[in-house]
Every structure is written in structure tokens, then in C-alpha cells.
Amino acid sequence: MAGRHRAAQAEISGVLMFDDVVTVINHYYDAVTREDKFNATVLNGDCMWREKTEKTVANDRLQVAKSISLTILYRSGYIEPEQYIKLSNDEKSKYFTLNANDNMDFIVLGSVSGISDYASIQNMKKKYRWATIASVSDNTMVDGLRHWKVTGR
Prior knowledge:
Layout: H1 2-10, E1 11-12, E2 15-16, E3 21-30, E4 35-44, E5 47-58, E6 61-73, H2 81-86, H3 89-92, E7 106-109, H4 118-127, E8 130-139, E9 147-152
Antiparallel strand pairs: 1-2, 3-4, 3-7, 5-6, 6-9, 7-8, 8-9
């Protein structure tokens, strides 16, 4: 029953809206190796990725700002950033978080694997559409359409 309910939420007038595959990349510090590391979680569907370009004029100069709006329908496996930090390295691979506080977590359009260090992050940035998580709105307590709204820049 729950699966049918989610599918009904995602389809409006025959158009599937939440069908994007997105990868969430979480940064963490490995205290054992004393290195910054990354964990990638692929969210297969139940996501909607939208890109926005805003142009403004300030001091006679044209400024262009691009941003990403990502809606992720509620799913298991999410934990708050404060809880994620406390997990062991092995446990981190079982969860994902949406951390806008340190500018080190990313969202990527598509399925990405092999992300573990800065070199793999730089390689990912060359091949995929991506953004740094800038803000997160937790709407998982909303009846009807429980979700997270993520803004990326």
C-alpha cells in the first residue's frame, strides 16, 4: 500500500515528477588515518532535481548565479548531521545526511561511485552536474508529501 501511495504522489497528470537519480556525498574526518574522506549514497528515484539561473545587475555589472533545487521524498537511511558525525566509519556507509553547515557535502545528478577522497571529488566535478549543499529544509513532518528540500550552489 505504501508503495502505491508514493507513486501516486509522484505522478501528476501522467507525468512522473520524482524520477531523478541523485547521489549524496557526505564528508567526514577519519580519526584513524587522519584524512578527510567521503561517502557516497545513491538515491535511486523519489528525487526531483531542478536548476535555476538568476541574473542581476549590481554596480553596472551583470551577475549570474546558478542554483539547484532538489526535493527528496522521505526515505529510510537519513540521519541528522550531528548523529552522522558520531558514527563509526563503517556505520557511515549505511546512512546519509544533508549537511549545509561545512560546505563539504555535495549533491550530484546521477549515480556516482568510487568517491572516497579529494582526488575522486575533483574527478566527479569534471564529469557530472553537481552542487555544494547550501541549505536544507526538513519537511518530513508534513502530511501528504514528506520530503527534504535541498538548495545547492
